[in-house]
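Appendix B. Raw example, untouched.
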Amino acid sequence: MYLDEVLEQNRKFVEEESYIPYQTDKFPDKRIVVLSCMDTRLVELLPRALNVKNGDIKMVKNAGAILTHPFGSVMRSLMVAVYELQADEIFIIGHHDCGMKHYNGEQTISKMKEQGVKDEVFETLEYAGVDVKNWLQGFERVEDSVQNSVDMVRNHPLLPKKTPVHGLVIDPGTGRLDLVTRGYE
């Protein structure tokens, strides 16, 4: 029930011209695109830990900072950032204590069924070649997940070979960054 609260706050935000300090253009000043997790602890912590502000980077977020398909929407976003928005480097940043660690898609499928998604829907998807459980699956080690995503980006046939793709893991408590792989090498 937050919509009315959000709309009222937004009305005041615009009316008071509170947006002015955030004005910038669409090109990242630091020429970086970051793929990170959507975890709430990273909303302000990650930019501070990276020493970036509004306008410095392009930010792409999803559950677990996991790249699941080389031609999915996340990869498309990375390609648009590189080819159209002047990003020269890609950072893939997972985090410790991620909800996708040891995540089993079965629990979400059970919740989907509790909310009214019928067994027939899952049967139809399975018939169409969609393995919902696997699609929802998480990872065992965040470092391995980050490395897998980095490898998928680095080996993408449409990415310029000179583009550095870095892999890091952030501690959501302290903001400490651990290097998984350096893209310059």
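End of appendix B.
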